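Work through this:
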Amino acid sequence: MQQSEPGPTTPGPTESGPTEGELPPMTADFLSQLSKDRVIAVVRAPEIPDAAALCAALRAGGIRWIEFTRTTPGLVEHLRRAVADDGDGIGAGTVMTGEQAEELIDAGARYLVTPGCRPEVAEAASAAGVPVVLGALSPTEVGLALDLGADAVKIFPARAFGPGYLRDLAGPFPDVPLVASGGVNEDNAAAFLAAGARAVCAGSNVVPPSLVAAGDWPEITRRARAFTDSCR
């Protein structure tokens, strides 16, 4: 007897990614928290006596996002120490290569930040499911950062171009999360946020290398509080 041809099968359920226009969960959570807190402390110091204590001092002043830069000697160990105490909001910056990205992710970095558009870093971050903030300045670079999969784009140096420049960038890039970095302080942070920055970076005015090296945590807490108060 002739057997009949099997009919079409119905595919079973498959895991699906985000629909068009929907952010992946990791990116959505990252941006939600960043938008709420609005300040990233950028630590660039030749000596850090206690990374966990430094993070605690910044959090006491209202800054939960802390970026340890790769130019800091012993960065990997500082990251591990900070993450072991409380990894929430701890990231690594000035990341230039894929190899560096992988090493810092292994050390516990919850997000990566680059000074410019670094394809290898973006690729490593994507593979590990870690958010990445790519640096840019011109509209062309902002577009490239988006093409590389940036979760947010750091505009550097922000002070040299002023808050109005971020407002102008928001014209062609209305939905792009921009982070103002470089020369942002208590006097201009609110202006950058009002101009459309999703967050701003607090640098040496909040975490001066001398105070970090001295372990003057109360003063760093005071400076962090002054900065966050200026953003309200």
